[in-house]
Amino acid sequence: MAMGKLEKKFPEAYEICRQFELDEGAMRKIVQAMTNEIYMGLAKQTHSTASIKCFQTCVQDFPTGNERGRYLALDLGGSNFRVLLANLISAKEIDVISKTYAISKAIMEGPGIKLFDFLAESIAQFCKEHKIENDNLPLGFTFSFPCKHIGIDQGILVTWTKGFKSEGVVNKNVVEMLREAISRRGDLKVDIVAILNDTTGTLMSCAFQKQNCKIGMILGTGTNACYVEKTSNVEMFPAYQTSTKPHMIINCEWGAFGENGELDFVRTSYDKAVDRESLYPTKQVFEKCISGKYMGELVRHILVELMDKGVLFKDATSQILREREKFDTRFLSEIESDKPGQVRNACKVMDELGVRGTSEEDLLCLRHICQTISTRSAKLAACGLVSLIKKTKVKDIAVGIDGSVYCFHPHYHRLLMENMKLLLKDSAKFKLNLSKDGSGRGAALTAAVYTRRPPSPPKALSTEKQSSSCPKALSTEKQSSSCPLKASAPASMPTVRRFIQKVVWTFRHF
Questions:
Q1: pLDDT of residue 454
Q2: Quick check: 42 and 236 in contact, CB under 8 A?
Q3: How far apart are CA 337 and CA 349, in angstroms?
Q4: Is the pTM above the cut of 0.90?
């Protein structure tokens, strides 16, 4: 059926969908609002009132592509906990072995000590299976909950999300709690060197191969982003004026954007209904407009209203659609995978939901509703990425992205590209890169970057003819023109003096 005819048959549905449309003017207004909130989040004076908090991560060094060896990684961000063993073989090859452990509701909502004992038990089981329990391997811990980072291996939980309510953990150092749980066992040796969230891991994973990666984004059940900022702009970092490291990854926590009313001019009655029924009403406004946990629920609310009006699925007998969260976001991906004018997947979805008696026109209208919600999601995500690209002031940038919505939706990448190009107007080149398993691999890579192993002897210390360039530090940023070690040690230099010089070089670069 031609689109014009479909609109004439379902005018009420199309009128609802028009409420979700965003034109270029609205998108530019959102970009500006997000940019303002980012500046507020970075500044001491306005941080507390900003909806985009811009938390420091203390991650100031980045992969060079030369990291090698075996590293452990943990990934805690939901009801499944993963332990990974990553072997960095080359700049293009990372061999990963992983195992997933389900966390019961009782542990998620019980005493915090029980949660960390469970994590330690899972790590020990994994390590014993692979005979590495005594190897004291460096470990990166992806902990995807709002945290205040006070060191690369120090993270204070601000609040639980995602259904966790473990007592006695909020305002505590989660790394220390994990170390204590491991210590109580006495049968495991690991070295926890870094804590990070999944967006930071996504950025680090992408940066291993693309050193111009300055942004990481997660778009799955939830959404968040991080980016590389000048340390001198991170006023919440105590050493922001004195740090010798020029850059730091900032955890935006942009899912909360809109909590100050910045999105009220585009939110619909359906957005507000989904918000009211959520676990955290009035919170995570941006996330509720674009992420996988809520997109399907937005579609369901629209369908129920149209069914109640006798507009859609008039002969449907199923009551499943009237139950909350029964219309999964994965259904949007399946329905929108149908070729234009076809309804095969849409029919399967309705059949799975027990909805009988649907016509082809009904299913085509359903597809239009799904496309409307997906398109708005992509436009809002594009606004967020464009605001970060503009903030970095980088003219050629790579963006690492992970998450089920981005990975599995058939048109999401294209929609992001189109709308980012519209907003950037050739002011910057960008590339969107799937950063597969950023939360796992990224944790291992962060552990590799922050593992203080003795470096190979720098060329500046050999007796051969020396290069005039500085030894390459861990940061991928441009090095200072002044070299910490200006000249090589001549062959006749006393052994003790050469040793001291090597120690100085080591401490200055690691």
A1: 40
A2: yes
A3: 12
A4: no
Work out the mean pLDDT of the chain and round it to a whole number. 88
pLDDT for residue 59? 96
Q: Fill in the DSSP letter of residue 103.
A: P
Contact (Cβ atoms closer than 8 angstroms) between residue 52 and residue 34: yes
pLDDT (tens digit per residue) in 28-61: 999 999 999 999 999 999 999 999 999 999 999 9
Residue ranges of the alpha helices (H) in 3-157? 3-9, 11-18, 24-42, 105-109, 112-129
Exposure string for 276-303, b = 16+ CB within 10 A, e = fewer: eebeeeebbbbbbbbbbbbbbbbbbbbb
List b or e across 56-74, with b for residues whose CB sees 16 or more CB atoms inside 10 angstroms.
bbbbbbbbbeebeebbbbb
Inform me whether the pLDDT recorded for 493 exceeds 50.
no
Cα 36 to Cα 52: distance, rounded to the nearest angstrom: 9
Binning pLDDT at 50, 70 and 90, where does residue 503 land?
Answer: very low
**Angle formed by the axes of helices 292-308 and 11-18, to 10°?**
150
CA-to-CA dists, residue 152 to 61, 182, 207, angstroms:
10, 19, 18
Residue 131: other Cβ atoms inside 10 A? 8
End-to-end CA distance of the chain: 65
- Kindly list the catalytic residues: 162, 198
List C-alpha distances in Å: 306 to 303, 324, 326: 5, 16, 17
How many Å apart are CA 106 and CA 184, to the nearest integer? 21
Q: How many CB atoms lie within 10 A of CB 324?
A: 11
What is the reported pLDDT for 173?
A: 97
Q: What is the pLDDT of residues 351-393, one digit of tens each?
A: 999 888 789 999 999 999 999 999 999 999 999 999 999 999 9
**Looking at residue 426, what DSSP letter applies?**
T
* pLDDT confidence tier of residue 112, bands split at 50, 70 and 90: very high
pLDDT score at 460:
35
Q: Looking at residue 145, what DSSP letter applies?
A: S
Strands 137-143 and 69-76: parallel
**Half-sphere exposure of 292 toward its Cβ, with a 13 Å CA cutoff?**
22
Q: In what order do the strands lie in the sheet with 94-102?
A: 94-102, 80-88, 69-76, 137-143, 190-196
Alpha carbons 14 and 362: distance in angstroms, whole number: 13
* Token pair recorded at residue 99: 């195992």
